[in-house]
Input
Amino acid sequence: MAGVRFWREFDTRYRMLATRCSQCGLVYFPPRTVCRKCRRRSVGKMEKVPLPPQGTVLSYTVVHQGLKGFDAQVPYVMAIIEFEGGVTVLGQVVDCDPEDVAIGMEVKPVFRRVREEGEAGVIHYGYKFAPPCFPVCVDESLASPE
Amino acid sequence: MREVAIVGAAMTKFGELWDRSLRDIGLESGMLVLMDAGMETEDVEALFLGNMSAGRFIQQEHIGALIADHAGLADRGIPATRVEAGGATGSLALRQAYLTVASGAHDVVMVGGAEKMTDVSDRDAEETMSFAADQEWEVFFGATLASLYAMMARRHMHDHGTTPEQLAHVAVKNHAHGSGNPKAQCRNKLTVERVLGAGRVAEPLGVLDCSPISDGGAAVVLTTLERAKEITDEPVIIRGSAQASDTLALHDRWSITSQRATRLAVQGALSQAGKELADMDLMEVNDGFTIAEIIALEDLGLAEPGQGGRLAEEGVTALGGDMPVNTSGGLKARGNPPGATGIAQIVEIYDQLKGRAEGRQVADARVGLAHNVGGTGATVAVHILEVA
Output
């Protein structure tokens, strides 16, 4: 395992910044450097924009056989979250009982430890999603622009 | 473009082949197919090999050269090319071989697929399979391939009322088919109750909704239709070959309950073949997870969107039904060594069209379709075969 990896520098993985095509207005998260619709015409014309502060669960699953590095989290909920404007993002849903997750449920992004590479290895951080009412979930900066 | 025919098809047994290496498996399928075609190694002008991830499974890359070498082809210096596209690896190797013969570059081409998954732990094998999804934006966050298909299933149930029992019927049917296939990994029969009662992998999918971890190889020999007619009175012609792509990540799709690449590939293959789906006598379809077969059959056009769950439940897709699907047992029961799967589908169609699918023969089969999917649908290939 390499010690330095480029994805650790993705600001979008920590702050949920999307890109918007200034030609057609389509918004992408994960951010794209080329618009799927305008393609070459969009090169250099994608702008960073914040995602809406809340989304809804489009689909979900409770994972019982997880990937390595997620052992302490099993069972965990993976979901696809749909934001206003049609952007869809995959992530875990946390801070609630897996039994309570449902399609259409509202969630907001939170900043969390995603996994770790063994006891002394690199810790991976990124976003997860949580019910907006959960009291610990107070970090408004996650959904705000720079 | 020249017309291309298959003149030999063979596969190893699929399963946990503890006593054989990747090179053994690749070599065995290659020798079997030459015997089947009645050809000599000297007849082969080029080799294409499907292998998804030997680098992770056995720490070996450069698989084209490896297999060419051990097949005794290295001294002749023929070109050997490895192809990779996740679970669609085998069918893309076939398509490359098809295009090579159709274009006139070579007259006789062997295409093989092989994978050796059981040299690593089950968890390592499952992790590697997940890498056919998007590492940066899916796998990083904990998504397994099963969890992505589980989300398709959950949404399909929500939108269309598909039931866990309907998913289970796909596994029950394909295991019943696999029980008649001596090359299949899983020859045990299942019941709906057993599938539903099995341990959960990613809800609503349980372990019996998922295809197994497999070792195995498969190979076919392609040549021009003209040359095939010198070898056999009944050549199996590749009437259609089409491939399509979609976004790598499931969440980037316009829909998560339909695979657009399947729709594009089947349109392309049918149009090239000048046929309709109803002309097919049987199909081998991606069923890496039970929900995958349901969605595939909707996208292929056998059922209206949302109605695919009824097909296995009502026996339409069983042997003896209107459209037998996965008579080999499918990925679910025949086994799923990803490099070989797409070729094994072709082996099954070939055996059926040749009337030699003992124990599971579809009566009077003349035309068959193979549908192979990589990841959650980012690559799909469809091939249509017809016996002349």
User: Anything to note?
Assistant: Chain B has two domains: 4-121+214-231, 122-211+239-334+348-387. Chain B has a mean pLDDT of 97.
